[in-house]
Amino acid sequence: MSVYLLRRLIQAAGVVLAMSIIVFIGVFAIGDPVEILISPDADQIERERAVAALGLDLPLWQQYLVFLGKAVQGDLGRSFVFNEPALQLILQRMPATLELALAATVGAIIIGLPLGLYAGLKPNSLGSKAIMAGSILGFSLPTFWVGLMLIMIFAVQLGWLPSTGRGETRELLGLRWSFLTADGLSHLVMPALNLALFKISLVIRLTRAGVRETMLMDYVKFARAKGLSPFRVTFVHVFKNILIPVITVTGLEFGSTIAFSVVTESIFAWPGMGKLIIDSINVLDRPVIVAYLMIIVLMFITINLVVDLMYSVLDPRVRLDSK
Questions:
Q1: Is there a domain that residue 312 lies in?
Q2: Looking at the structure, do residues 18 and 147 belong to the same domain, yes or no?
Q3: 68 and 90: one domain?
Q4: Which of 176, 177, 211, 238 is the most exposed place for a label (fewest CB within 10 A)?
Q5: Cα-flanking dihedrals φ and ψ of residue 80, to 5°?
């Protein structure tokens, strides 16, 4: 296991290095932030002074080497707009995004697994067909439209939930969380549901497909032949074996949820990383954009590593192959 882990860490380091080159060149080769940050009335001397202060007077490869040297020390640059460390700005917004992504992922699992299990065990029932039809809607409806409809129905017409913001927060482990207060929880419901809709549909279809496939396996037939109860057959022999693909996709989708929560955060004015990156793109705040993308890359790599390690816990064959 230690050799496998070391090999994966070396691969991860190579991926991070390659992605840093792609991200840096892709972001720093596009546009000119000086045109946005400097007043049009500024003379040429002031413009050159601003370009030198931002480090944009160096060739692109030298700018990357400077960035790489500082990144190894944990410095991803200073924001052009806020004049603060880009990493600090993102870490200030990260708890809000993580909270939203965790709420959406947990909600998708809590709702999607039972529905998918029912649809797989009783595929011809009316309830199963209704669940599968609902999952198709979850895949098809655009996130921005669903978010606007949620605001219109539950905030404007019914007045049950607040439409924007994060609400009251409470500190836990040095971070501010909204789910610890009633007001914050009410603000969290709609954006989390909006973000979870696609994931719920995905978990339902994965679970149903896994159940239908597993029910035909010989070990399930033997379990039934031994007279085991349907509950034990379902939750010991079927449920455990369908968790591997569900965990894999859910883990990867968690990374996607963090990375692509931009639309939801913009609609509900949720003060997370997604809203920060949109504002940074509008003013070409390159250090913040690069820092955000590199953090997302690190998150995806970490999630992939965790998912691979969970394989060995859930499936003994993975442990045997690793040996």
A1: yes
A2: no
A3: no
A4: 176
A5: -65, -35
Domain that holds residue 108: 86-322
Number of domains in the chain: 2
Q: DSSP characters for 151-163?
A: IIIIIIIS--S--
Closest CA to 162 of 182, 176, 145: 182
Chain centroid, CA 103 distance in Å = 11
Name the domain boundary from 72, 95, 118.
Answer: 72
Whether residue 262 is found in the same domain as residue 315:
yes
- Collapsed DSSP state (helix, strand, coil) of residue 46: helix
CA 246 to chain centre: 16
- 75-103 pLDDT per residue, tens: 777 787 777 888 888 888 888 888 888 88
Whole-angstrom Cα distance, residue 167 to residue 185? 8
pLDDT (tens digit per residue) in 205-244: 888 888 888 777 777 777 777 777 777 777 777 777 777 7
- CA triple 284-264-163, angle to 5 deg: 115
Q: With contact defined as beta carbons under 8 Å apart, do 315 and 244 qualify?
A: yes
Its pTM stands at 0.73
